[in-house]
Amino acid sequence: MKLTDNVYVIGGGSLGYGISSPYDCNVYAFELEEKVILIDAGSGMGEEDLLRNLSEDGIATERIHCLILSHAHADHAGGASGLKMRLGIRVLASALTASIVESGDEERSSLSQARKEGVYPDGYRLTPCEVDQIIGEGDGVGIDSSIRLQVIPLPGHSADMIGLYDPGSRSLFAGDAIFEAGKLAVLTTRDFSMEQYRLSIERLSSLEVDHLFPGHGAAVLVDARASLLAAQHRFEQGLPPESIV
Ligand SMILES: [Zn+2]
C-alpha cells in the first residue's frame, strides 16, 4: 500500500495494517530512484504476504537493494534470513542487532520471554541471519553515492534500536522507538531502559519530521512532529509514557 510519494507499507500484523502475518511488525519499502530499500523484515511467518504485497504495489523484486533492520526483536528481524535468501539482498543492522541476529540468540532477542508470554506460537524460532554491513551513529545508507537515510541510535525499547531519517522528505522510520500520538512500547525485557528511552525521545524531539513510519500501528503522514513532542512532553511532566502494549 502506497503511503507517500516514495514509501509503501508491504507488511503489518495485528497491531498495525493487518496485511501480513499477525506476528509481523510494519514492513516498509522506501523508493530511492530506481531502487528500493526494505525496512524491517517481519517475523518470517508472513514472507509470502510481503512478496505478494510488493507485487501488488508494482515493485519488482529485482529493484530491491537491501534490507535494514531496526532491532533484533523477532517481529522485526525473524524474517530477515528468508528475505535475504529469496531476494538475494544484503542485510544491514547495528552491531548489537547483528550480534543477536547472526547467532539467533533467543535470550538476547527476548524471544524466549515473549514466547513464554504467548506473544509468539510455541514452535516459532528465530532463524539466524548473516548481516552484511554494520551501520551506526553518523552513517548514511543509500544507493551508490546517493545517500539518503541517516542512522540514529535510539536505545530504550531495546538496547540495539536504530531509527532511519530521510532529511529530504523529513521522514522517520522509527522501529519501536515511537508511535502515533507519541505512544511508546514499554516492555519488561532485560534490555529495556526507560532512561535510555527518555534520552532517545529527547533526541527525536529536535528532529524536523513530517512523516513518521513506526514499527506498529498507523503511519503518521501529517505533522508527525506533534507525536514526537507529545512523548517528550509526558517525560518533561514526569508522567509515565502511554504504551501501545
Ligand atoms: Zn521491538
Automatic annotation (TrEMBL):
It is found in: Periplasm. It catalyses: a beta-lactam + H2O = a substituted beta-amino acid; 3',5'-cyclic CMP + H2O = CMP + H(+); 3',5'-cyclic UMP + H2O = UMP + H(+). Its cofactor is Zn(2+). InterPro entries: Beta-lactamase_class-B_CS, Metallo-B-lactamas, NDM-1-like, RibonucZ/Hydroxyglut_hydro. The keyword Hydrolase applies. GO terms for biological process: antibiotic catabolic process; response to antibiotic. It holds the Pfam family Lactamase_B. GO terms for molecular function: beta-lactamase activity; zinc ion binding. Keywords: Antibiotic resistance, Hydrolase, Metal-binding, Periplasm, Signal, Zinc. Residues 24-216 form the Metallo-beta-lactamase domain. One of its GO terms (cellular component) is periplasmic space. Its EC number is 3.5.2.6. Counteracts the endogenous Pycsar antiviral defense system. Phosphodiesterase that enables metal-dependent hydrolysis of host cyclic nucleotide Pycsar defense signals such as cCMP and cUMP. Monomer. Belongs to the metallo-beta-lactamase superfamily. Class-B beta-lactamase family. This is beta-lactamase. It comes from Paenibacillus foliorum.
